[in-house]
């Protein structure tokens, strides 16, 4: 029995891209479940970015964001999402020219996508790709979609695309769904 567990460990280490044992536990030094104040302290103490507070939305999700979030070669928009004062998601804006290389990096880091389809080189599609049991998500959208809907134009180039890279607690969707259900139950009564 001991030999079998050693063999499984060796296989998982050797083929890590195929064996995902644990979901992402946070993004860098930001761990899921840490409080809003703990997150603010880390951002301030490490001069991570110029943090702004947009408050809570109608579903009770509290958002902190910054427009100089350090990622890649250029600072960009980044955000932290909290439910009940606990961190559950970190999101980072991705430039059009970074999408394909980022997909390659994520495939190398996390293995095969757990959901969605990886687009062929040069053929980006609007959609969502998830890795590591969808705790790492890349949402790709068409920047000009709204502008083009009026013209009914369907063509787009990769430069029209944008994306958001999201690191997420595996609990986020369930907690959000439960919160929505609770609100709706109160409305129906």
How helical, in percent, are the residues?
25-40%
Report the C-alpha radius of gyration, rounded: 19 Å
Amount of beta strand:
25-35%
Number of strands: 9
Shape: globular
Low-confidence stretches: 1-22, 146-150, 152-157
Secondary structure category: alpha+beta
Q: Please, how many helices?
A: 5
Strand order of the largest sheet: 3-4-5-6-9-8-7
- Number of separate domains: 1
> What is the assembly state of the chains in this entry?
single chain
Strand count, sense and closure of the main sheet?
7 strands, antiparallel
First and last CA, distance = 55 Å
H/E series: HEEHEEEEHEEHEH
Mean pLDDT: 81
What report would you give on this structure?
This protein has 189 residues and is α+β, with helices and mostly antiparallel strands. It has one domain. The protein has helices at residues 2-14, 36-45, 99-110, 145-149, 172-188; strands at 26-27, 30-31, 52-56, 61-69, 76-83, 86-94, 127-131, 136-142, 161-168. The strands form 2 sheets. The protein has a 7-stranded antiparallel sheet. It has a two-stranded antiparallel sheet with strand order 1-2. Strand 4 (61-69) and strand 5 (76-83) form a beta hairpin. The chain is globular and about 50 Å long. The protein starts with a helix and ends with a helix. Residues 1-22, 146-150 and 152-157 have low confidence and may be disordered.
